[in-house]
Here is the input.
Amino acid sequence: MTLCLIARMGAAKFKSWGVNSYERALVTKIIMSQDTLFHAGSMLCDIHVSSKKQLFQEMASKLLELETFGDKTLACRDIVAAASERERLGSTGVGSGVALPHARIDGLDRVYAVFARLEAPIDYDAIDERPVDLVALLIAPTDAGGAHLRALAKVSRMLRREDMRQRLRSAPNAESLFTILTESRAADAA
Here is the structure.
């Protein structure tokens, strides 16, 4: 049986076939790559920023570097402006050191996300008034109401867990951040 067939069948079904842990991890990565918001290239680890605007600029730049990013005409300033405009409606700092800035932008083909762990927490006007050090920026097409909300809900569920926040805060590098985020998605999917 090929990995593609196994991937289509789902991770839970191949556990009983005697597939070793390396093969299981590889197939899980294939499954997750079909349905994940985050990619290995969309992680920022221990970035130094002092404001929301600077944070949005760093995250937007990272997003535009992704090979999978669909709209090559979009500029960093467009993403920063959209995230800042949404922020004016109310803070996306959800508490416990977490922020989920998000925006809708014309011309996108799907929802994209970037994750950042800050070197030092910044003031973010969060609902609990605590500074923020874990941030997931989501941008979506203007007509992707359901997909945008589902993505936001998935990330919110993931980051509201104390154990998840602790693991992300203690991860040694961007690759570890990615692994933690994708393992969580794989566990949720199973």
Notes: The chain has two domains: 3-34, 37-189. Residues 3-34 form one domain.
